[in-house]
């Protein structure tokens, strides 16, 4: 393989890898109604599917820095893609297994997704910068946008195959593409990355000893519970409680991820003039409004619009939260981003599991009203954090350094 073609293969591996990561991340919630109907899972069992994702994302995030030193960034990317491939194969296998074994296969799926995210976030954030140094910010923003496009496409993609009774084929096609991409990454020549760009070694700054960091980490968990309620229960809410068809539910979830992705892309330009803190105060009231809007949405158009609004409300919150936290510790941006992504996975996994337990005695509709307390809690905590932050922590930070999931 020539040098130019090998460099092209490296860029394809990174950007197509972002697309595959986004699609795989959403594959389980996008298939939730089909899986529950196929295997008769209870709400508690469905919620429990996401617990391995929580644990494996923590393990992957903490181990990523160490493994990058041992294996190298290229091998770490290949390992992350392999995790996503195993996740897709386990998802496909669940269709042919009895309920008890299918539940285990789906837990393997979410566990491998979490591990793929934890291991892959470092390489996926690092390579666009070294592949396109002249336009590094644009290259990184494009990567995160592509991840969002993957999350947006997955519901429609899987729903299209499901409506033709070919859901399994759709998952296997995704697996085949991921396998080809993994082999491409193995053959590609990636530029070298200095250890300091991907390591989590501890320099002079110690964010873990500062109250501000822990306040931001708690906010990340709370926000991610809210995002998980919107996304991971959307298909079941629309089909089971609103009686809509799978196509409507898939379109609503696609609109949620589309609005979230578009909002993050727009925010990456607005943040040049507007500090991240402004987003952290402006978006929670919109999330509250979205939680109040969903229970009163009865028609297909209303539900699709409500989920699009919810996506816009969530859009820039997490990247701006990471940017705000990182601005207080400019020497530890990579470490802050890694820990905040870990906190995000904790919130999504834990929140979905708890909602699954509660849903046996309460509808998702009623839980939306209870969930309005989550954005309110983030507002109170960010107000506390603001008083703890040094003046320099309020300056703008490039939010495109945060992964879009």
Question: What this model shows, in words?
Answer:
With 405 residues, the protein is mostly helical. The protein has two domains: 1-201, MFS general substrate transporter like domains (Growth Hormone, Chain: A, Up-down Bundle); 203-405, MFS general substrate transporter like domains (Growth Hormone, Chain: A, Up-down Bundle). 79% of the residues lie in helices and 0% in strands. The chain contains 18 helices and no strands. Helix 13 (276-293) packs antiparallel against helix 15 (317-327) and helix 13 (276-293) runs antiparallel to helix 18. The longest helix has 33 residues, at 99-131.
Properties at a glance:
mainly alpha; 2 domains; Growth Hormone, Chain: A; 405 residues
Q: List low-confidence stretches.
A: 195-203, 392-397, 400-405
Listing every helix as H and every strand as E from the N terminus to the C terminus, the arrangement reads HHHHHHHHHHHHHHHHHH
Predict the CATH topology of the largest domain: Growth Hormone, Chain: A
What share of the residues lie within helices? Answer: over 70%
Give the name of the CATH architecture of the largest domain.
Answer: Up-down Bundle
Give Rg in angstroms. 20 Å
Mean pLDDT: 85
Structurally, the number of domains stands at 2
SS elements, strand count? 0
**Classification by helices and strands:** mainly alpha
Strand content: under 5%
Shape: globular
Instruction: For the record, give the distance between the C-alpha atoms at the N and C termini, rounded to a whole number.
Output: 33 Å
Assembly form of the protein: single chain
Question: Which CATH class of the largest domain applies here?
Answer: Mainly Alpha
Instruction: Note the total helix count.
Output: 18
User: What characterizes the major β-sheet?
Assistant: none
Name of the CATH superfamily of the largest domain:
MFS general substrate transporter like domains
């Amino acid at each position: 393989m020539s040098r130019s073609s090998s460099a092209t293969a490296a860029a394809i591996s990174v950007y197509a890898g972002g697309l595959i990561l986004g699609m795989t991340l959403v594959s389980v919630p996008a298939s939730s109604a089909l899986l529950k109907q196929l295997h008769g899972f209870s709400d508690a069992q469905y919620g429990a599917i996401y617990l391995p994702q929580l644990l494996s994302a923590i393990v992957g995030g903490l181990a990523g820095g160490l493994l990058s030193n041992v294996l190298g960034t290229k091998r770490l990317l290949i390992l992350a893609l392999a995790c996503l491939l195993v996740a897709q194969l386990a998802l496909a296998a669940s269709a042919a297994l009895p309920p008890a074994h299918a539940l285990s296969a789906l837990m393997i799926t979410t566990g491998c997704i979490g591990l793929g995210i934890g291991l892959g976030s470092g390489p996926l954030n690092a390579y666009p910068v070294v592949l396109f140094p002249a336009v590094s910010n644009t290259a990184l923003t494009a990567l995160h946008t592509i991840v969002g496009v993957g999350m947006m496409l997955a519901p429609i993609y899987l729903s299209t195959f499901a409506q033709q009774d070919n859901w399994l084929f759709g998952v296997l096609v995704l697996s085949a593409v991921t396998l080809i991409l993994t082999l491409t990454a193995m053959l590609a020549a990636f530029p070298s990355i200095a250890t300091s760009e991907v390591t989590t070694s501890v320099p002079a700054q110690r964010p873990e000893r500062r109250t501000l960091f822990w306040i931001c980490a708690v906010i990340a968990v709370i926000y991610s519970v809210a995002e998980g309620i919107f996304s991971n229960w959307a298909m079941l809410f629309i089909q089971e409680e609103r009686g809509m068809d799978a196509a409507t539910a898939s379109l609503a979830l696609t609109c949620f991820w589309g609005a979230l992705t578009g909002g993050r892309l727009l925010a990456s330009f607005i943040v040049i003039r507007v500090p991240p803190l402004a987003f952290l105060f402006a978006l929670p009231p919109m999330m509250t409004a979205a939680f109040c809007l969903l229970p009163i949405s009865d028609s297909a158009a209303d539900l699709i619009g409500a989920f699009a609004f919810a996506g816009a409300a969530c859009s820039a919150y997490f990247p701006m939260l990471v940017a705000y936290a990182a601005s207080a510790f400019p020497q530890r941006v990579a470490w802050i981003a890694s820990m905040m992504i870990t906190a995000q996975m904790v919130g999504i996994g834990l929140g979905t599991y708890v909602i699954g337990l509660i849903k046996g005695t309460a509808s998702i509709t009623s839980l939306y009203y209870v969930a309005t307390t989550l954005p309110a809690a983030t507002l109170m905590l960010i107000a506390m954090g603001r008083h703890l932050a040094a003046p320099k922590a309020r300056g703008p930070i490039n939010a495109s350094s945060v992964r879009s999931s």
